[in-house]
What we know:
18% helix; globular
Amino acid sequence: MSEALLQSEDNHCFVCGPDNPIGLRLKFRMEGDLCLSEFTPGEHHAGYANQTHGGMIFCALDDVMANWMYLQGETAHTAKCEIRYRRPLELGKTILLEGRQVKRKGRLALMESSAVQADNGTVIANATASFMIVTGG
């Protein structure tokens, strides 16, 4: 597959793709050994009772781990992911996302991520995942 086609497909990612009209359009950056981003859920991200749908939080946590790999020049796919929801997130409240690699063995990377409410430091959710590295490195 050509690099131009890969770039075009990357631009349609639901979480980080700038060309996805219904996506979250999160922007990821590296600071030291951490991948960071922010997410402020709106009315289209609702579960019930003015709370963010857990699937939106899951997507954001999965992608902050995947983008840690991507920003290292690697492509990886989630093999297994486990999330622990700690508190509900009210719509309109910004969360800070953080992802890091914990361990690496061959083509398998163990990652972890967290979502913390920006205005008060409350931990909203944590995730751990195994990623299968398919390119780069």
